[in-house]
Amino acid sequence: MANTIDFNQITVINPRTEDYCIAGFVVRLVMNRDSHLWEELNQYAPFAMSPDPDRKTLITMSVVDKDNWYKGEVYEEEYRQDEDFLEIGAGHIDGYRCYMFISFGRVACRTIVNSDYSHAMVLLTNNELYGLNNAMMLTYAFATARKQTVLFHSSVTVLDDYAYMFLGKSGTGKSTHSSLWLKNFPEAHLLNDDNPVMRVEDGVGYIYGSPWSGKTPCYRNLRYPIGALVQLKQAPYNHIQRLAPIKAYSYLLPSVSGMRWEKSLSDGIHETENWIVSNLPFYLLECLPDDAAAHLSHNEISVKKD
Fold this sequence. Notes:
This protein is an alpha+beta fold. About 20% of the residues lie in helices and about 35% in strands.
């Protein structure tokens, strides 16, 4: 007979608990207090909260050792997705959802989650910090998918208290265009350079900083209303145009993280994506990596204050 998991009683040896508030949702991390990883989680410090065992959490992430990993049947993979240099394998063990995060062909960690993504059991195997970061980031994306919240692949620059999201495939120039805004508009600042969180709250679209910012160490626990989204496309000239919602949707899809093969999550993601293209200005910027492109986009998309 297969074992079962009591997700409220997962065994973590010598546990230490820390809570982090990310875009208004609380993520709880439980891990051996002697783990070297605690000293390597500086990116989470701006999001840390004072301890409170009675606090309501979105997710509890419990990092276990191999002796306390679930002793069930063999993992059966059902789907694999390439998520910007990270492979995600999705499947089941004895009916439990299980995800593997694979870096350069090696499994960095395994994660088992419960039915509503409120609890996760994590086993780190290789490149532990990389594995833990991705387990936390993507479990967060799954848990918020039905809460009008999405995790973006985007570089976000703030100017005059509005956030401007630059989207595009890796290597398109998202970070470069943000840096051009910072260079040309001294009051601008970077909010996040890779994985910000977008939420719809009371009919307003907001973008939040997150602990996940790719290669750029920019971890800001701040929130701003979204001024515009801009899809970047490399070109030998500079040209910008506002897109109709149906065209914007096709560009938006690859920029949002999520398990699209799981219908309940996919429906939540699509609902939020529909809201975005219906309510927020979305532009296509064909451009060179130069100052003129930054001035062109700024003049076209910036929210004009009275």
